[in-house]
Design brief:
Elements lengths: L1 E6 L3 H12 L3 E7 L3 H11 L3 E2 L2 H6 L3 E4 L6 H10 L3 E5 L6 H14 L3 E4 L6 H6 L8 E7 L11 H16 L4 E10 L7 E8 L4 E7 L6 E8 L2 E6 L4 E9 L9 E4 L5 E7 L8 H15 L7 H18 L4 E2 L1
Parallel strand pairs: 1-2, 1-4, 2-3, 4-5, 5-6, 7-10, 8-16
Antiparallel strand pairs: 7-11, 8-9, 9-10, 11-12, 12-13, 13-15, 14-15
Protein name: Gfo/Idh/MocA family protein
Pfam family, one: GFO_IDH_MocA_C3
InterPro entries: Gfo/Idh/MocA-like_OxRdtase_N, Gfo/Idh/MocA_Oxidoreductases, GFO_IDH_MocA-like_dom, NAD(P)-bd_dom_sf
């Protein structure tokens, strides 16, 4: 079992603590929180060991799980890596691209492994159909959330949209060529609603919308590719897979057949992948343990987390000078 320690005991940090405690791949050593009052309260309430010194916790573990505010990700990760510890770091990987790129250098320098907490990669709806998403040419995503003051210190792109950016980059085997985006600040100092259009070198286009002031929650993505349409509902954990194939010469009475203007006939059929219930956060933590033990590349590597941040920051840069105040 890998010895693990958690930095940060806020809302998400407490979830990580509970899951690491339950996991049979980790031994939870304890946690550190800069807020001593909160740290002692969490320790008293849940029985976890509280370290009032970050360095002492880092020295006691094999894996450092960083669940602190984004502004402190870099310093926490750097300290852990310099001590030769593997790091799991919540998204976004860091606050700036320069910080993320330095972590890549440190990862190689100290021979450690790192994974970024893009949890939607472990969403059972996405994992059930990811293998079927082959060379998508148009992607549309909507990630809408009801207002919650937590997280409004950063633009909605880094708070919400980055989930979809990472998922898209994981299935589009091409570089981003052009970005056009707009963002609106309604209630926060940073944009609360954003829309971005990503154009890739291979011709794929992705249209992303994110809002944190919606009346309802929605997390849906749709992938269009040759002879297939795939819809993923990350919130409800449901999928729709609609495919087309050449129509048989003698279709059955219940076969759905379409004919285009050129006279080509296609048969429409549906697939229903099995979606297994899971805890995505536990899965991502245990997948990282497997990567460490087996010396394999983490499912969401620091490099991939850096690429997602790079695109997110490019989106923000494209509208930051033209924010609309309502």
């Amino acid at each position: 079992m890998l010895k693990a320690g958690v930095l940060g005991a806020g809302h998400l940090g407490k979830i990580h603590l509970r899951l690491l405690q339950e996991s049979n791949k980790y031994e939870l050593i304890g946690f550190y929180d800069a807020d001593i009052i909160n740290g002692k309260k969490v320790a008293s309430e849940f029985g976890y060991t509280y370290f009032d010194n970050m360095n002492e916790l880092i020295a006691s573990v094999d894996v450092v799980d960083i669940v602190t505010p984004t502004l402190s990700h870099y310093e926490c990760a750097k300290k852990a890596m310099e001590h030769g510890k593997h790091i799991f770091i919540e998204k976004p990987i860091t606050n700036t691209l320069a910080e993320a790129e330095e972590l890549l250098v440190l990862e190689d320098k100290f021979g450690i492994m790192g994974q970024v907490g893009h949890v939607e990669r472990f969403n059972p709806a996405f994992t059930a159909v990811k293998h079927a998403i082959q060379e998508p040419m148009f992607i549309e995503t909507h990630r809408l959330a009801e207002f919650n003051p937590r997280g409004t210190d950063v633009p909605v792109v880094l708070d919400l949209m980055i989930h979809d950016i990472d998922a898209i980059l994981s299935v589009v085997n091409s570089k981003v060529k052009q970005i056009n985006a707009s963002g609106v600040s309604v209630i926060s100092q940073s944009p609360d609603i954003a829309n971005a259009r990503l154009e890739f070198e291979n011709g794929c286009v992705a249209n992303l919308t994110a809002s944190r002031i919606s009346l309802k929650n929605m997390r849906k993505s749709r992938f269009f590719q040759k002879d297939a349409y795939i819809s993923v509902d990350f919130l409800e954990k449901k999928v729709e897979v609609v495919k087309m194939k050449d129509a048989p010469e003698n279709p059955g009475d219940f076969d759905m057949v379409l004919q285009n203007a050129e006279g080509v006939k296609k048969q429409i059929y549906f697939e229903n992948p099995t979606i297994a219930a899971n805890n995505a956060i536990l899965d991502e933590l245990e997948a990282f343990a497997d990567a460490i033990n087996n010396k394999t590349t983490p499912i969401v590597s620091l490099k991939q987390g850096t690429e997602a941040l790079k695109v997110a920051l490019q989106i923000i840069a494209s509208f930051e000078d033209n924010k609309v105040q309502v």
